[in-house]
Amino acid sequence: MQEGNETGDAGIRHPADAGRTVHALDARGTVRDWLISPAWGRPADDLDKYLATEGDPWGERGRWQLTNGPDVTPLKEELHRHRPLRREPVTTPPLEGGPVRCTGPDGTEHTGTWRRVHTPADGLVDWSEFCFTPEYRTALAACVLEVDQAEWRTLRLAATGPVLLFVNGELAGESGTVTYMEPAEQSVRVWLPSGTSTVVVATWQVAFRECRHVVRLRVHGLPVRVVVPSKGACEHTSAVAERILDAVGVPRWGTTSGEVTITGPKGAALRVDGAGRTRRVRLTAGRATVRLDGDHGDHGDAADPERHDTSAADAEKDERGTGSASMLSTGTTVLRIAMDDDRCPVYREFPVAVLPSSYRAAPEGPRAERRAEFLRHAARTEGTAGELARALGDPSYQVTASGLARALWMIDNRADCADFEAVGLLHLWHRIPADRWEAGLRARVRAAILGFKFWIDQPGLDAMCYFTENHQLVWHTAELLWGSALADSAFANTGWTGARHAAHARSMAVAWMRRKLAGGFSEFDSNAYLAIDLLALVTLVEYAEDEEVVQLAAGVADRVLFSLAANSWRGIHGCAHGRSYVSTLRSSRLEETAPIMWVCFGTGALNEAVLPAAAVATAVRYRMPDAIRHTAHHLPERWWGRQSYRGEYRPTHDLLARPYASDLTVYKTPDAMLSCVGDYRPGLPGLQEHIWGATLGPETQVYVTHAPNASTSPSARPNAWAGNRLLPRARQHEGTVLALYRIPGDDAMGYAHAWFPVAEFDEWLQYGVWTVGRKGDGYVALATEDGALLADAGPEARQELRPRGPGTAWVCTVGRRALHGELGDFARALGTPRFGPDRVGFRTLEGTELALSWDGPFTVDGRPADLAEDGTVAPVPQLDNPCARLEFTDATLTIAPSAPAGAAPHVIDLQWGRKVTGTEDA
Fold this sequence. Notes:
alpha+beta; nine-stranded antiparallel sheet; 22% helix; Heparin-sulfate lyase N-terminal domain-containing protein
């Protein structure tokens, strides 16, 4: 696997006086400290040997498999059989900072540098990455195990892809198994001689979009020491450093000021690397402050800036990012913190984010100025939305090739999310006259579009996503409208005319819109993907020539915006979500829906996901009905809302064939919001669903998840904070949620945990089993059996609550100063919930008795909440809130905000949408 100088024996030995750090296994016997190589990637350019590039995309050799998911694992295993890992041992001792070489499965010689990692609590060495085009990936991990007495041990190796396990240069174990998200484990019995034994793990993956590329090693039997060779390191000094670093924390994940506070042992001298700089600080009084932007001095005993250039590879990766529609990349910076001592190479990593400062909880100024504010913001961004905003704001501006480089790269390379960019280019194509484009650029765009692929049934092997709800309509929109714009042209990929492409897409777009107009979304209230849905819908209203398409698109767009208005609070899309990401659950300023709310409601935030909001802000034909804006501003003393969606997945569009359903509840007051999706597939595996949560501010959000791993990467689905390994059973009554979690005995992490960022509260306390917080005049209280401990160190210091007890039952309730007095009064009045195996009960502050068990009914004052007055199962309304009521049998939806928010009622036909007259609210 690696070439170098021969060692002269089968093992790789390290003299006792050589530089090294020494580490213990964790309580489960997990190796937490490694040297790892880069993840070397090569284009997957041989897929046509295994899949049909043309014709029917389905079946055993169908190209549908390239959209990632559990169904793709047989294909990945076949690809590995044809491009297996090379069974060549590492022959040069791994050394931190030393060279590493690897011959890839295709014979390519890869080189790099060994770097140290300390895994998070899940013990996973993680090379996961979202790959926009298919690629093969190889990576190595190495450590040294040390024992005083020779003895047998069992090594338990877990990975999501094929692996080879080398011990002292000999192949000791291998696997060709591929899994989607959770690693598969194998056991290997090995003889460890007295002294040190080098362990090297070679890993393989093939990436189609999100790539979960991880490995973990556990040692069963008596503990061993883990040695990491490192020139100049002192194991004794490093051991002290590790104990110091394990007490360091960053108590605020997000910052709007650029300042980050670091806490830890008093007087510790630390070196902080991140954002292209090295800073040296002392934890005076147990804390120090650093700035991420480098514009001001760091606060500590010293600051020693040392700038580093961004690598060409990083710059290229930035250029090939997701564009301006998606927030998969959120600008998170990883701070690497170490002792300021060259003998101590150990470190810990802390992800932090500089958050957008522009946030509004209430509208300010006229609506036209809010749109202008957004367009000025968008004009400072890169990509199609930035070009559109600049061109519309400056009549002399010409659309630039550099501004479209990312979009055209994605389309030319058929990179995932290229469909978003194709829609973005439509706005430029139609809005900006041909004489205001750089010479040749419009022809360049036309050529890219004529060579593009617009749906899974068209030729070409790629990993673009066609099978999620939001992507479907974006694809149909791009194909319909580009086909119409270039109706007489031949599209090279299919040989079809543009008119044929438009006809191909029209039927699918109409079917999609009719289904969503009548039944709602499977990705219910996603704070990522409602924005993408709206991008496509508004684009259809603006440029489609077919009146039926325009009416349907306007009707569904109204429903999307009404859902956003009804299920948000003070510019925060804080309800339960069908799909969400960690960053948006930690700060609403990063929600893709936030800029849309800024434009439409005057609330929300301005962030980098500008393309959907730009489509709305620059629309000529689509105007949001006034009744929807009034709904967003309607915040009575008590808001109780229900939203129920029902539909059927389609195998050729969703890769699933079953019904979907969600029953969302929302409770709002002027001071807080609480939301839950009730009885959503409890006990089944989860993905990215946000089941329930309380909201008191853009960063003051509280919720609980059953963590499957310690990752926060969008390529881990679910992960530590977005989604659940097993979905809970949760129900809401007014301002209280009861939630039950089932944690299997062999669970990878073994707990549910809560996000409760105390630094974001104005006041907080713990009282009995409760953790209670105040933001403004709003209160939230969270309880679990035996209470919970607040983390005091690590990346989630003073943000994560771990249960003292089983953590399988939780109660969350919200309150107000106006009703419940001061925070201490509120806490003392709560009482103690009744916890038991698979059950929880609670008497609310209003005196209502609530009870939830895993298998029994959810009861309110002893009566099942799902029964009608006559004792039968109550019908579920599709919508029921202060601004609208809709039964599943109704033909129209009427939105009619009540006084004092009053506005003219707005009616949507659930079969045909609504006419676009141009007289709606501007």
